């Protein structure tokens, strides 16, 4: 089943993983690199006003064309991430908190987000909110995750985010012209299921888990995971990345 998103719990999980995220978030790093390359292909030579949503540990922020961005707002749910971004872009404007509840800057030329929008409570309303603040011909560029994301964990635990597929995203974003839409599956392999759980904890991806599992439940989960999702490469965990570049119509 899919779960209601508790933003306070998500905030706490990502706060706890802020120091370990970059070391463990291998797939998210690949996705940040790919998204930055897409932005580079489609962006204007000079970007007047830009907003990054869900900057976290600065994985995508480090890859931005900062010399070409005149004014940059940076958002994250975790307040502590703002001190990380300050080391990357000292003159940025912080916009800390739940982006769905915050007032957005106006007349944005570029809105970007890496691996964040899967945590939105109301994507339809939020995409309309973004549309209203992006200038004509402005860009919305983001990566997120699709329905196959961590499907092994979902199959065994019955828990998971309400991921939308590629077509569902495009339906909600029909007021934009789609310049690029793509999905990629990234399988990761571990020695055993215990290391899968450790990986999820270090990346904050366990943001739905309200209470620690009992020892009995952990042992059962690990045994089933090892049995069902092991092949010659090891124990598999699947990430399902999606990439979008959209332009607001004139």
Automatic annotation (TrEMBL):
The keyword Zinc-finger is assigned to this record: no
InterPro entries: BioC, Methyltransf_11, SAM-dependent_MTases_sf
Residue ranges occupied by any Methyltransferase type domain in the UniProt entry: 51-142
EC number(s) given by UniProt: 2.1.1.197
Reaction it catalyzes: malonyl-[ACP] + S-adenosyl-L-methionine = malonyl-[ACP] methyl ester + S-adenosyl-L-homocysteine
Coiled-coil boundaries: none
Keywords: Biotin biosynthesis, Methyltransferase, Plasmid, S-adenosyl-L-methionine, Transferase
Pathway(s) of this molecule: Cofactor biosynthesis; biotin biosynthesis
Pfam families the UniProt entry points to: Methyltransf_11
CDD domains: AdoMet_MTases (cd02440)
Annotated SUPFAM superfamilies: S-adenosyl-L-methionine-dependent methyltransferases
HAMAP family in the cross-refs: BioC
Family: Belongs to the methyltransferase superfamily.
Xref: NCBIfam families: BioC
Role according to the record: Converts the free carboxyl group of a malonyl-thioester to its methyl ester by transfer of a methyl group from S-adenosyl-L-methionine (SAM). It allows to synthesize pimeloyl-ACP via the fatty acid synthetic pathway.
Record's protein name: Malonyl-[acyl-carrier protein] O-methyltransferase
Lineage of origin: Bacteria, Pseudomonadati, Bacteroidota, Cytophagia, Cytophagales
Gene assigned in the entry: bioC
